[in-house]
UniProtKB/TrEMBL annotation:
A Pfam family annotated for this UniProt entry: Oxidored_FMN
Obligatory cofactor(s): FMN
InterPro entries assigned to the protein according to its UniProt record, in alphabetical order: Aldolase_TIM (IPR013785), OxRdtase_FMN_N (IPR001155), YqjM-like (IPR044152)
PANTHER family: NADPH DEHYDROGENASE C23G7.10C-RELATED (PTHR43303)
Protein keywords: Flavoprotein, FMN, NADP, Oxidoreductase
Organism: Cryobacterium arcticum
Region Disordered: start-end pairs: 399-418
Record flagged with keyword Membrane: no
Listed name of the protein: PfvD
Record's keyword annotation contains Membrane: no
GO MF assignments: FMN binding; NADP binding; NADPH dehydrogenase activity
Length: 418
């Protein structure tokens, strides 16, 4: 039975464990380039034991960035910074992954700590955004995007392919596309943002066309041994938006076009979400991710509140997910995998760090509890480990039932209610 620390192979790439660092925008780039900050920040997570390490979403065009401080790979001058970072991740034992994206109508923003609002197109740091339809997101993003022409969509497919080729040149071994969180791919998928009347709008088949063409374009230039994955917004949590059932059908088509793993998230095509919003729920996306895994027959990953070691381990042990993606936990603790291994009683937690560090951590005399890490459980109940076992909807106490059984019962209840 696999666990959080079992190696994982997809296509021709093997990860040392099932722990991935999610892409998170840092707003630290100049002219779209990765620099010494990214070398330090991403190298530290690889050294800390993460099996798969992503920089932030990497823009395929200048107007595909969120802000002018965001990273890209839309010209050859940007390759060097990526290559330096990739080399560092590899030297620390991780696999370097890249997430290609375009923010669509959610671009031309200021940084979050400056308010995160949208700049008008005429502003020196702003631009006219592009989207499937001329519909503004609203709220702090009031400016109406320009609807893409069919010719521009074809050029975007070439942009995806060209950026993927640069990624391969830089040494990335895992390529993902960001089609969630209200960005361009997610906008094409959602009726909330896409009201086109041509071959890219209307029916589910037409709204998925952008995804399938992008997969085809990237797969054509990426060696077959490199996994091709996609972060997908599978639920808009809005009565007029995308549903999980629709997404399951569409992911089946994507699998036929070379999708190797589905990284599942929320649509975020509106800030007027309703129903069971999983943002604040521990493991809130796991149930729907497991549905995709079972019904499509494709490997899956998700994030959203999986940072408690016992939860992260259980979703792997019970075959609910293939990989666990961690965002905020990776920011909070560059050595989260070592922390989790200590808490869970893994036999050799310091084997996750570079060998020179590992020697000192394994052999230096001193009090174990003073080493700066939580002590290993040594078989103790997780509920007895201070600061770790919090109340979680994924874990029924005192019932010993598994997560998978709980989810099946919940699904049956939902069907009966319907």
């Amino acid at each position: 039975m696999p666990n959080l620390f079992t190696p994982y192979t997809l296509k021709g790439v093997t990860l040392r464990n099932r722990i991935a660092m999610s892409p998170m925008t840092m707003y630290r780039s100049t002219d779209g380039k990765l620099d010494d900050f990214h070398l330090m920040y991403l190298g530290a997570r690889a050294a800390g034991g993460f099996g798969l390490v992503f920089p932030e979403q990497i823009a395929i065009t200048p107007d595909g960035r969120t802000t002018t401080h965001c990273a890209g790979l839309y010209n050859d001058d940007q390759i060097e910074g990526h290559k330096r970072t990739v080399d560092m991740i590899k030297s620390m034992g991780g696999v370097a992954a890249i997430q290609l994206g375009h923010t669509g109508r959610k671009g031309s923003l200021v940084t979050p700590w400056e308010g995160g609002h949208m700049l008008p197109p005429e502003h020196a740091a702003g631009w006219e955004t592009r989207a499937p339809s001329a519909i503004a997101y609203g709220g702090d993003m009031p400016y109406v995007p320009r609807a893409l022409t069919v010719d521009e969509i074809a050029q975007l497919m070439q942009d995806y392919a060209d950026t993927a080729s640069r990624a391969v040149e830089a040494g990335y071994e895992w390529i993902e596309m960001h089609f969630a969180h209200g960005y361009l791919g997610s906008e094409f998928f959602s009726p909330l943002a896409n009201q086109r009347t041509d071959q890219y709008g209307g029916s589910l088949e037409n709204r998925t066309r952008f995804h399938l063409e992008a997969l085809d374009a990237v797969r054509a230039v990426v060696p077959d041994h490199i996994p091709l994955t996609m972060r997908l917004g599978i639920d808009d949590l809005h009565p007029g938006g995308v549903t999980v059932d629709e997404s399951i059908t569409a992911i089946g088509w994507m699998k036929e076009h070379g999708l190797d793993l589905a990284d599942l998230s929320i649509g975020f095509n509106t800030d007027n979400m309703s129903g069971d919003v999983p943002i604040g729920v521990l493991g809130g996306m796991v149930k729907n991710a497991t549905r995709v895994k079972e019904e499509v027959g494709i490997p899956v990953a998700t994030s959203w509140n999986l940072g408690q070691p016992e939860i992260a381990n259980r979703v792997i042990e019970e075959n609910l997910l293939d990989l666990v993606f961690l965002g905020r936990p990776a920011l909070a603790n560059a050595h989260w995998p070592v922390y989790a291994a200590r808490v869970l009683g893994y036999a050799d937690p310091f084997g996750l760090v570079p060998e020179d560090w590992a020697w000192w951590l394994r052999n230096l005399r001193g009090a174990d509890e003073a080493i700066g890490w939580p002590a290993a459980t040594n078989g103790a109940s997780l509920t007895e480990v201070a600061g770790v076992a919090a109340a979680a909807p994924l874990i029924e106490e005192p019932s010993p039932q598994s997560l998978s059984v709980d989810f099946e019962e919940e699904r049956a209840d939902e069907l009966e209610a319907a």
